[in-house]
Design brief:
single chain, 357 residues, mainly alpha, two-stranded parallel sheet, 14 helices, 2% strand, globular, membrane, transmembrane
């Protein structure tokens, strides 16, 4: 992590963001809608949790064959993805509900996925959303070793083929939580730049307790109450996490590691030349996709709107998108939107090739 603090240009001299923010506020005032989620998001949260927990219940009922249970494990993988993108994501941004305890409750769903809430908020809310696509600060693109997602990372010979093997590695995203969370906690506590606050003793206790809970939930209970062998359980466990990892990683990568999404470098004083809001448009991309897919992935096809207004629920992004695009074009700022999911995916593969050579 960078030793010096990263700063953005002090003012938006174009007045783009003040004008945009006023238009967004006017939209909500005229529509008389809350910026957070409503009953639609609560029902969506219940559905996504059911997609995770009902297959789990069917597996531990011990009434189905190993192959049928393997299918249930894959369904759990999609459940993990749905909970992560449509429920936990909004809740940890405080946009799931206007009621704080509801946000806290649904943000804790991350423990069911094997993750840690505080680590997520540091890596995602603080580092990724503030310092998007900045090398050595945004951990989403930095320091992957087997993958070169940042122009600042060292180029290795194997990266020439990363567009071939990348999606296999994406399948490891959620399974890596168990080790990654401990490594990150140590890293944040020993960060010389102090961009984030260190973990308290209570935070460490929660981290350890949540991992023990996950082991009990995902391994001890199924192995105790079913007739499955350890090998059968392991196959289901890997299938579940691989499914979740591929879906989650792919959707996240299509926002920032695609053509047109810049990776600006701060100057020698650690200052990025653009104002924060303009930086978000320069480093982020949207992609068009069918409404059902957009619903399932929690509106993450509208990443530009999400990065500009992370405290607004994703259920509003489709309506806000024309306002953001029109305002960006008025101020001469590129609104990077891929016309389809396949186009965005191809753009990501081309970026992997470019970064690997």
């Amino acid at each position: 992590m960078r030793k010096e603090a990263v700063k953005f240009a002090n003012k938006d001299k174009s007045l783009f963001f003040p004008v945009l923010r006023e238009r967004i506020d006017s939209h909500f005032k005229e529509s008389q809608l809350p910026k957070q989620g409503d009953h639609r998001l609560v029902w969506k949260g219940i559905f996504m949790l059911a997609l995770l927990l009902i297959p789990y219940g069917l597996i531990v009922s011990n009434q189905f064959s190993a192959w049928t249970s393997l299918l249930f494990a894959v369904l759990m993988g999609f459940g993990i993805s749905g909970v992560g993108m449509s429920v936990m994501h909004d809740a940890n941004h405080g946009s799931f509900s206007s009621v704080s305890w509801i946000n806290s409750f649904f943000s804790a769903c991350l423990y069911l996925l094997g993750g840690n809430v505080l680590n997520w908020k540091i890596q995602h809310n603080t580092l990724h959303h503030t310092y998007t696509n900045i090398h050595d600060v945004d951990e989403d693109i930095t320091g992957k070793f087997l993958l070169r997602l940042s122009q600042g990372d060292k180029l290795r010979k194997m990266h020439r083929y990363q567009h071939v093997y990348a999606f296999l590695l994406y399948g490891l995203m959620t399974i890596s939580f168990f080790v990654k969370d401990f490594r990150q906690a140590y890293k944040y506590n020993h960060s010389s730049g102090k961009l984030v606050k260190p973990f308290t003793k209570q935070d460490v206790n929660v981290l350890v307790a949540s991992k023990l809970f996950y082991v009990l939930f995902i391994a001890v209970v199924p192995l105790t109450v079913t007739d499955f062998t350890f090998g059968q359980w392991l196959l289901g466990f890997l299938a579940m996490h691989f499914t979740a990892g591929v879906v989650l990683s792919t959707i996240f990568q299509l926002a920032h590691v695609v053509e047109g999404a810049e990776q600006p470098l701060p100057d020698t004083n650690g200052v990025v030349s653009s104002a924060w809001a303009i930086h978000q448009l320069q480093t982020t991309a949207n992609f068009s996709c069918p409404r059902l897919l957009s619903w399932f992935i929690g509106g993450l096809d509208f990443q530009i709107e999400h990065h500009l207004f992370p405290n607004i629920s994703h259920i509003h992004y489709r309506t806000l998108s024309p306002i953001v695009q029109r305002t960006a074009e008025e101020y001469g700022i590129v609104y990077n939107n891929k016309e389809s999911f396949p186009e965005a995916l191809n753009s990501h593969v081309r970026m992997l090739k470019a970064l690997g050579n």
